[in-house]
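Sample entry was shown:

___
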Amino acid sequence: MNGLCGHPGWAWIFIIEGTISDFSYLTDIGAITMIIGAISWWIIVDFPSEATFLTEEEREIVTRRLEADGQHGARAESYEWSYMRDSFTDWKTWTGMIMYMGVDGALYAFSLFLPSIIFNMGYSHPTTAQLMSVPPYAFACILVSRSPHQSNLFRLSLLDSMQTAKNRGVFSILACLVLG
């Protein structure tokens, strides 16, 4: 598709994904994505009881299944600002945010700055700097691929009485502390 309608091949990924190729002013703003997003306000239902495409019996089945799963929003309810306050005063929310920032901070710092660090170490060509960032990623891939096997060995030899999920968690924590 390279050169079709004057666009390079890579640009067609974005054009096909979110725009109409016949209207250039729409392609620049991602109009289809915005239109579908606006229409979804009326198409997507909040609760099973509001789903007009379900029969009454199907609505009741869906509601009972959600309630059996412990879903609090199985029945229609109104929004209250206390829900927002409760979510921001819950320690689990803040712990989750800090954990997410810890993981993503390290991930993006490594992936975005490693080529620049390598470039400043004396590899003068940008392509060489990019290619020199491959070995750390390859090593990380090997570690991640071996982690489940190692955690199972760890479980069998040391913590046979614990549950597998807990063992993998312990193994992951120990691996993070050691490999840091």
Q: What stands out?
A: The chain is about 70% helix and 0% strand.
